[in-house]
Design brief:
Elements (H helix, E strand, L loop, with lengths): L4 H5 L11 E6 L16 E4 L10 E2 L11 H11 L17 E6 L9 H15 L5 E5 L17 H12 L2 E5 L19 E7 L10 E2 L5 E2 L5 E2 L2 E6 L1 E4 L3 H5 L13 E4 L2 H18 L5 H10 L17 H7 L12 H10 L2 H8 L4 H9 L8 H9 L6 H10 L10 H8 L4 H12 L5 H9 L7 H14 L5 H5 L2 H7 L2 H15 L18 H23 L4
Parallel strand pairs: 1-4, 1-5, 2-4, 5-6, 6-7, 7-11
Antiparallel strand pairs: 2-3, 7-8, 9-10, 12-13
Helix pairs in contact: 2-6, 3-4, 10-11, 11-13, 13-15, 14-15, 14-16, 15-17, 16-17, 17-20, 19-20, 19-21
Length: 550
């Protein structure tokens, strides 16, 4: 029997999240007893694509097997699962917390997941006070996932910053791939609590837990990811049906209750951390979200084996022993408030700010224009900032120029960015090029040089763009790094190269043997399979692609 989340984290028995309300955003939630209403708590469902005025529905259990999303079930169960189907053995961290399950799913034609995610965040933003929601889990793999982009480039990060500014604890898993800063958009927002992971050992001893190989790195704003750790591997969670268990990687190995299985990913460390916060709020209901975040991080348990992640394991008992967190009292300007100030300022005031000697102020003013068409009077001033001595200012200017007139923003800005010594500037160059398809042919040769950039994040983003551009002559440069990525365990880079090759050639080569649900991405047999796939791609291109183009 593998340890439960509560047992591994050694959560005091009296702390269950009782009378604390937390929200989990995910796909389609099954009516599974572990996450449904019972005599000890109430679960609420907010349907996907809901308008802000939509009222939650009481979420009742139904007999299994269950339809709906496996990921949504596991995320909610890690935070606040009752363990009902396991006779209480495998509870979530806060089994008596009231759950608000915000479903980002619709069966309607034309459904867009990105749009649904934004609407789900908007629902929480408009309703957290009404329903007394203290914390929310928001985590979705993003097409703009890199932490090397400013948070102002992503509407989800903007909403997360607004929620945090209003007083909600926003939590996100950091992502599962060690060769990128984060694959999850929200984790890179400055105020979001990003959660990495450890693997639960069979004996349940936290001191013997090894590090989970997830995302790590420094964002555009200088935030280190992850902020804190929670269980992300060997996490026993409920599943929906017999077939799911029969095909599971650990199904024939483990002796655990029926329809439960070990799984892995920061998709579950994030909810587990949110459950820990609920337990602490039960004991300290007066703590603000800022105080809760401080208490969780300052009391986390550090171990030498996790030093690469520069973070500690969440400890509810440690936070209880430390007492009230030590945070700066009084008015603190949040990132969102600072951004809003400049957004609402007059154009003349913003233009004056662009002439400031303070590089932070110049950067903040520039970022207040991101996402909008640039006013004519601002264009030349922002163009000049692409030569600023501070790299964050140069990068911000390039991001803002996506709203500039094409006649004044030519390929020279992008080509110069690709030669810059700073990875955040090179990344901003990719960001600018992505929206300028009219410049693709002029910049494609320089973009291909980024496929082996010194920054793994820049590599990934350039490969994502190469997939969209789909120039045939990209294929040789992309496949050249595929085997090295496979051998080095650079899963994100490997996937980006494979996806680009598929888009360019129209060919799809399967992984042999295929991935099995529940299988850790760094598992040895997967590494061997990726190396084999790299060799098959090299052979296929040599025989069917490159020869015909010589």
């Amino acid at each position: 029997m593998w340890p439960s989340l509560r047992d591994f984290l050694r959560v005091p028995g009296e702390l269950t999240g009782k009378n604390v309300r937390i929200a989990v955003m995910d796909g389609e939630f099954p009516n599974h007893p572990d996450i449904s209403t019972n005599e000890r708590r109430t679960s609420h469902l907010v349907r996907g694509m809901s308008e802000p005025e939509t009222s939650p529905e009481i979420f009742q259990a139904e007999p299994g097997p269950w339809s709906g999303g496996w990921h949504a079930l596991c995320a909610a169960a890690a935070a606040g699962g009752s363990g009902a189907e396991s006779q209480g053995i495998y509870k979530g961290v806060a089994p008596e917390a009231d759950l608000f399950l915000v479903a980002k799913y619709s069966r309607d034609p034309g459904f867009e997941n990105e749009k649904a995610h934004i609407k789900a965040l908007e629902w929480v933003l408009h309703n957290w006070r009404k329903y007394e929601i203290r914390g929310v889990l928001s985590a979705r793999k993003s097409r703009i996932g890199s932490g090397l982009f400013p948070w102002q480039t992503d509407p989800r990060r903007i909403l997360c910053e607004e929620l945090a500014s209003e007083g909600v604890l926003v939590v996100s898993g950091s992502g599962n791939r060690p060769d990128e800063t984060t694959g999850i958009a929200e984790a890179a927002a400055p105020s979001v609590l990003s959660v990495g992971g450890v693997a639960i050992p069979s004996d349940g001893d936290p001191y013997r837990a090894r590090m989970f190989q997830g995302c790590r790195g420094t964002t555009f704003e200088g935030k280190w990811i992850p902020d804190i750790l929670a269980p992300a591997e060997n996490v026993v969670l409920p599943h929906r049906n017999d077939e799911e268990i029969e095909n599971h990687f650990y199904a024939k190995i483990d002796d655990i209750p029926f329809r439960y299985a070990r799984t892995c990913g920061t998709s579950f460390s994030g909810p587990a951390l949110l459950g820990a916060a609920a337990c602490l709020w039960q004991a300290h209901p007066s703590w603000t979200a800022r105080e809760m975040k401080s208490a969780l991080i300052s009391s986390s348990m550090k171990r030498p084996g996790w030093s690469d992640l520069r973070a500690g394991l969440v400890s509810v008992s440690g936070a209880m022993a430390n007492g009230a967190p030590d945070v700066v009292q009084g008015q603190v300007t949040s990132p969102y408030q600072n951004w809003s100030f400049w957004r609402k300022s007059s154009l003349d005031h913003r233009l004056d700010g662009l002439k400031s000697n303070n590089p932070n102020e110049v950067r903040d003013v520039i970022l207040s224009f991101v996402g909008d068409d640039l006013p004519h009077r601002a264009v030349s001033l922002i163009c000049k900032q692409t030569k600023h001595p501070v790299d964050s200012v140069r990068a911000a200017a390039l991001c803002a120029l996506t709203g500039g007139p094409p006649s004044q923003v030519d390929s020279g800005y992008i080509l110069s960015a690709f030669r810059d010594s700073s990875p955040i500037v090179r990344m901003a160059g990719v960001y600018l090029l992505r929206g300028r398809s009219d410049l693709w042919s002029e910049c494609k040769a320089s973009l291909s040089g980024l496929f082996n950039d010194t920054s793994l994040d820049v590599r990934i983003e350039s490969l994502h763009l190469a997939r969209r551009m789909a120039y045939p002559d990209f294929a040789e440069g992309i496949v050249a790094g595929l085997e090295e990525d496979a051998r080095m365990g650079r899963v994100a880079n490997f996937a980006a190269r494979r996806d680009a090759l598929e888009a360019i050639t129209g060919q799809r080569l399967p992984l042999i043997p295929p991935y099995v649900p529940g299988q850790p991405s760094q598992e040895d047999s997967l590494r061997v399979a990726r190396v084999d796939l790299a060799h098959r791609w090299e052979d296929w291109l040599s025989e069917n692609w490159l020869t015909g183009r010589v």
